Amino acid sequence: MIVDHxxxxxxxxxxxxxxxxxxxxxxxxxLGVLARVEEVTTDMWDAYVxxxxxxxxxxxxxxxxxxxxxxxxxxxxxxxxxxxxxxLPEAERAALKGSRWLWVTNPENLTATQRAELTTLQQRFPQxxxxxxxxxxLRAIFNDPKITTPTQGRQRLTQWMQQATLLGxxxxxxxxxxxxxxxxxxxxxxxxxxxxxxxxxxxxxxxxILWRACGMVNFQNFRLRVLHCFGVPTx
Length: 235
Fold this sequence. Notes:
two-stranded antiparallel sheet
């Protein structure tokens, strides 16, 4: 799905996410509707990134969506939490049963009772507590309005990785490698703070179309339905 964030609309729905398909569309569109594009936001899918680079060249910035970075981290966080829990005695592991929601939810989305419960668990299991602190520290970097350049973002993320690796967890080391490999495009976020948040909203709407239709087997009919619902600029 290709989204025009300025006008809050879906520009096109492609049949697949292969590089050739995306590149063909971008090369055609850059002569028309995408003639003035300045930035492309995407997730960490090589086909999207490479197609954008080949179609637009170096003059257009490619930015990795911050929410996909955090999603990737959440997956590693869950693995790291399990990594730590396996090292605990059986009785203590039992005490953590059913607490996953507390560890992976943003504190502001927890009730006062849930926050108190999480604090108790963090104190009882200090290693998990430090892991939780790393999660909030990473969120704070992306939310910090004082970071206004990719260079500043790189410095802060590098400092974060140095602290994260001290925990000695395989899962966090894996995430740090991902962060390092995509650092340039991740830190482009701090230039204008653009993200794919609106794209995720459109994805939810598209799923609603599929639910209502009990699935659609004809791609062209599906494409036309999506463009009819979401292809008109928002007033």
